[in-house]
Structure formats: C-alpha cells, structure tokens
Specification:
The protein has ten helices and no strands. The chain is mostly helical.
Amino acid sequence: MKAKEIRRKALVKLEGNWVPMIGITILISVMSAAFGYVYVLIAPLILPGAALFTLKMIRNEKPDIADLFGTYKNYLNALVVFVLETLIIAAGLLLFIVPGIIFAYMFSLTSFIIADDTEQNLPAFEILKESARLMKGYKWKLFCLHLSFIGWILLCIITFGIALLWVSPYMAAAHAVFYDEIKKADAQNSIGNSHTVFENSTF
C-alpha cells in the first residue's frame, strides 16, 4: 500500500473519531509538559495505550478512553523497551546519525506490538525483535510515509503548533494503518510458507 493510500484510509477511519483522537493528543501533550522527566515512567503506559486506542479505531472496533491504560499488565516490559529503545537510538545518533535513524525506524512498531499483545506478557527483547522483524524491508516505506506529511508539518510550524491538534491524530492513524497492513502481509506470508512446507512434506 502506497503512502497516499495509507493516508486516505487513515482519513476514512478518522471520520467520526476526530474528537477523541484530538482529546488523546491534548492529554498526552499536557501530561508530557506537566510531568517533565517523570513522563519517562508514564510514557511506557500511555503510548502503547494510545496505540491500542488507534488500532481499535482503524479496525472498526469501539475504542474507549480506558484503552489508554489498557496495556498496564505489561508495563515493566514496556518500560524496559522504552529505555533500551531510547538508549540504542541515542547511541546511533551520537555515532554517525544515520544508524540512529535506522534504529528509530527499526523499533517504530514497539507500541503497536505491546498494544496487540493480548496476553500482555511479551518480554522486552521479544518486543524489540518483533518490531525489527516486521520492519525488515519496510523502513524505507515508513520513511516515505513520514515524508509525505512534510506539507502538514510545515503547516504546524506556520500555525505555531496549533495545527498539531489535527496533524498528530492524522499521523497516528496513518502509522496504525501502516502497522496493520504489515501485520496482514506477515500473516499472509506465514500462511503461504506453511502451505509450501506442507506441499513439500513427504509421508
């Protein structure tokens, strides 16, 4: 799916859901400003929760504000993921910048993976590995998706951040659609591989 198609699908899913998505954007921004450095301890709960809310929205389920705290059972693993992810990306940026960007894209699905973990007990390293696995061959596509928002980002700058109230939910929905499409493709590939193994088996 091309960036344009992902953005179009995101806008369709946002119809009737703009108010709660904007509300979540404001809530996360306020919490980030209010808690300062302590937000590091809250982000591993709120960010996967926001991902859960957004995934439910684009999957035509019924998201609820309580979803913001819906991944609390895996909080410790999410915290470890958040810390490791931040350290790895920071190290990459300090070294040659480009590795840091690659790492950022490699681990860009961790919040969605945590949100999709129905058992809520996936270990931190497994979350990181799964994100890296799913993003194999898709990092450039996600970069192009982000690049397609450049006009909207410029609008945010021109409006002194006011447009972020609409652009942030838009980008979040597009990211969720991107993840969902990758999951579908991965599931289809798994089914295809299992069929190949079955067909090549001898009894």
